[in-house]
Amino acid sequence: MGRTVASGDPSGTNGGKNGPSGWPPLTLFGVIAGFLLAVILVNISSNLIENPDLAAWKPTLWEFSSYIGILVFVPALWWSWRRFHWTQAGVARFLTAQIVSFLLFSGGHIAVMVLLRHLGYLLVGQHYNFSNGRLPLELIYEGRKDFLTFVLISGIFWTHQRLRAPLHPSPPVRIEVRADGRTIYLTPDEIVSVEAAGNYVELHLTTGKPLLARATLAEYEGRLGAAFARVHRSRLVHRQHIREISVTAAGDPHLTLSDGRTLLGSRRYRDRLKAG
Fold this sequence. Notes:
Layout: E1 4-5, H1 26-50, H2 57-71, H3 74-83, H4 86-89, H5 91-123, H6 135-164, E2 174-179, E3 182-186, E4 191-197, E5 200-205, E6 211-214, H7 217-224, E7 228-232, E8 235-238, E9 242-247, E10 253-257, E11 262-264, H8 270-274
Antiparallel strand pairs: 1-2, 2-3, 4-5, 4-8, 5-6, 7-8, 9-10, 10-11
Helix pairs in contact: 1-2, 2-5, 3-5, 5-6
């Protein structure tokens, strides 16, 4: 399966004031930073209320070291979210990338947090012990919290994407297709139709010979966008390559395409031919 090579943000998140390349928009980063700040302030106050004899600098250091350790990795999470977005890379590659991103995020967050706490304790002449001889348990404990934070940040990314998505998103400039041991770059207009073939999809092209790529039809439906109509549970057709539509006695659409082929659609999907 391939990925979409599009100009700008494939997730529909180009708008707004962006920072340096690869950084999230400042408003998005601000929402994440502000929400997490509110959480750590609650945690600090809770620690002081529950442990009135505790020196205030300790929970403050604990929470802010964690806060900084999270924020420094937000740009990397944003890059991973965009680079391996499911509309580009497919669901399987997206999920794999997110699992790897979480593991790196959690490990990096813990490393930065522990380093800052060691430095803070050194400044007041004390020693910080992260694990207290229970390193595996501490890593599991921190990893569990990191997972919730990772899901929260991903949810904010998704919400941002949905809010900024155009009503009629532009089709991708090119898509990357891996077939027959080759990587081929195609524009959507070069694809006449896409048909399911077991664990593969068959791409019928304006150039003639079809390509067989390992992917699902649903994956290609998401990648190719509104320029393609689902005419059957196993077929997508480029709207611009439809030359004639007739209807059978059973109510199924019968399509004649620009390459001379005819395809039978399903009446279940007839309304999709009118959309877009």
